[in-house]
Amino acid sequence: MKHVFKLCKVTSYVFGNIARPDRVHNPNSANNWDFNDSYMAMLIYKNISAAQKVHTGQDNLVYDI
Fold it and tell me: Whole-number mean pLDDT of the chain?
């Protein structure tokens, strides 16, 4: 999975190094952050087994997954 994160250039999102921007002050950045977070969560869900999915929540941030 780390290779996928590097290829997609979202490793910092996955490991929680980039905080979500405040939507009020920077709505464009917040939308981009939300997209990247959802995209990586989807990639993780597609690449783990059903038994592993039990330990993840579908509404969690990618860092929590």
Answer: 82
